[in-house]
Design goal:
Layout: H1 15-28, H2 35-48, H3 53-64, H4 71-81, H5 87-100, H6 110-120
Helix pairs in contact: 1-2, 1-6, 2-3, 4-6, 5-6
């Protein structure tokens, strides 16, 4: 089982907005997520509650993943979206070889690239 770092979510009422943004990133990565699932996810988090990152992961996975092949993409988007704010730097680095046409020393897995593209939302590296 994967180990997850501590989840730092501010208690300023923005969790629902962050879940909606996360759902948009999943949709852009190819998961079929509509507004009903977003509302279900927000309600599930409110009802179930959580105090560990792993619990939060599994609550959202139960709502957003409907087929086994979606698990890898969900996992990558979750890892990148819910980590520290510097995740954009990592995603830019993943896409640089693709944008500049240079072969990278490390080729990112397909799920990781889809997650990065979904979270970048059309932004290109400088």
């Amino acid at each position: 089982m994967a180990t997850y770092a501590a989840l730092e979510i501010p208690e300023d009422g923005k969790l629902a907005a962050n879940i909606a943004h996360f759902a948009r990133a999943l949709r852009k990565a190819g998961l079929p997520i509509g507004p009903g699932r977003v509302l279900d996810a927000i309600r599930a988090v409110e009802v179930a509650g959580f105090d560990r990152r792993e619990d939060f992961y599994h609550i959202l996975q139960a709502i957003f993943v409907s087929r086994p092949e979606e698990r890898a993409v969900f996992g990558q988007v979750f890892r990148l979206f819910w980590r520290d704010p510097r995740y954009l730097d990592h995603m830019m680095a993943l896409l640089l070889p693709q944008v500049h046409g240079v072969h990278a020393d490390r080729i990112a897995e397909a799920a990781e690239k889809r997650a990065a593209q979904a979270l970048l939302d059309g932004q290109l590296p400088p």
